[in-house]
Amino acid sequence: xxxxxxxxxxxxxxxxxxxxxxxxxxxxxxxxxxxxxxxxxxxxxxxxxxxxxxxxxxxxxxxxxxxxxxxxxxxxxxxxxxxxxxxxxxxxxxxxxxxxxxxxxxxxxxxxxxxxxxxxxxxxxxxxxxxxxxxxxxxxxxxxxxxxxxxxxxxxxxxxxxxxxxxxxxxxxxxxxxxxxxxxxxxxxxxxxxxxxxxxxxxxxxxxxxxxxxxxxxxxxxx
Length: 223
Ligand SMILES: [Zn+2]
Prior knowledge:
Blueprint: E1 2-6, H1 13-24, E2 27-30, H2 31-41, H3 44-55, H4 61-73, E3 81-84, H5 90-103, E4 107-114, H6 117-125, E5 127-129, E6 136-138, H7 165-179, H8 181-188, E7 192-196, H9 201-220
């Protein structure tokens, strides 16, 4: 059984997915991670991927899908798989749909974390990271004891390039253009669960858990 999280950057997909893994025995499958792994391993597939990356081109959807198919076919999928990084576009969702149908794999639910632009900007803009030990902080929700200094190792905290204001704008723009149409796509198929993601992590997780339990039952009943 396959699960997908949708939502803007900063909506909390990573945090919520982690909790689901712990509570439900799901595993995450990250297409980005698999592509990097293939390149490191130097397999045929990895070499092809490397060519695109070296040229600075996007890795084609079909190639990403092939990597995903291989991974799912290997088994070791726990009680369900949360897809990370795929699909990002409607085209990719169509490819995924074909692939799942062919292998009788079921897309059990699409969890859409809804948060306002304001909430998202506040979350992303407040992130701080320790370059030395990797600890993460947030100026509002998880501040260090001393402003700008890591609790664990005393290093000076930085803003990751990904979380700089210009990069945040770019990420949100890409999300609105490419990923948001997926919401309508999955809504039409009747498997979208809308979850209010503007609250505290625990509160959001309760709603996520309810949605997963609901969808899981429908899935088992073959609806
Ligand atoms: Zn540190």
